[in-house]
Amino acid sequence: MLFAATAKPMATEATPGAFWRGLRLLAVDGTCWDVAGTEANEAAFGRPGSGRGSGRSAFVQVRMAALVEVGSHAVLDAELAGCRTGEVTLVGRLPRSLGPGRLVLADREFLGVPLWQAFTATGADLLWRVPANRVLPVIKQFRDGSWLSQIRASSGPARNEPVTVRVLAYQLKDRVGEGTADGYRLVTTLLDARRHPARQLAALYRERWEIESAFAEIKTHQRGARVVLSSKTPDGVRQQIWAHLLVHHALRTLRSARRSVTVTPGSFSP
């Protein structure tokens, strides 16, 4: 309750990387916390599978999905569950913190019709990566190389209710590794190719990685690298995680205030 009352957007139009064409940039993703391996914690959160030894990980883990403001690294919302709960399930609870005027960036594992519709129902716009095996037929081609297409649910009633998206395909120069042979594809709710050029959206997508920096700030620099949360009870574990998120938000607020004073001398009275 304290985090929900505290965690608010803090970026302004002057914050570097916070807005694009009037849209506040946000990102969603998941991460895991290693916690003390007590019987109570294991019963509540579980251990991920492992291909070695006993077939179980050395640590009990809590999975967390978060909504992060790209420009400030502020965590605006989060969901916690055991490690057997998937990231898609947890991310599906985050649209409650969205609304118009936001552009949400996400990686390819989240692209599915139910989740897409849950996010767009809030009025937010989306820019998400596409899995390599997803077929996206061309309905209308635009001059910038993007095209209109449709995504469908794999099963259920939504299978017969396709969602119209705009597809962007591009390659990164001098990039070696997974996904580069056929390039990258993104889908977006921003259908106007003149107002939202494909080249700019492709360049913008790299801002999604700012959420990884936010996780590193919390779990490595703040908590400490390879540190296991010490609480021996599930309630204590949850309390520790929320405390870390509250401290991080406070630190980002202080950093934002410091930047404001530095950039605009005299705006903050001594």
Describe it.
The protein is an alpha+beta fold and 270 residues long. 28% of the residues lie in helices and 23% in strands. It contains 7 helices and 10 strands. It has helices at residues 2-6, 39-45, 87-91, 113-120, 198-204, 210-222, 234-263; strands at residues 19-20, 23-35, 60-69, 75-82, 102-106, 125-129, 140-141, 147-151, 163-170, 184-188. Strands 1, 2, 3, 4, 5, 6, 7, 8, 9 and 10 form a 10-stranded mixed sheet that branches. The radius of gyration is 20 Å and the shape is globular. The mean pLDDT is 90.
Sum this structure up briefly.
This protein is α+β, with helices and mostly antiparallel strands and 270 residues long. Helices cover 28% and strands 23% of the residues.
Tell me how many strands there are: 10
State the order of secondary-structure elements, H for helix, E for strand.
HEEHEEHEHEEEEEHHH
In which range does the helix fraction lie?
Answer: 25-40%
Secondary-structure-derived class: alpha+beta
Contiguous uncertain segments of 5+ residues? none
List keywords for this structure.
270 residues; alpha+beta; globular; 10-stranded mixed β-sheet
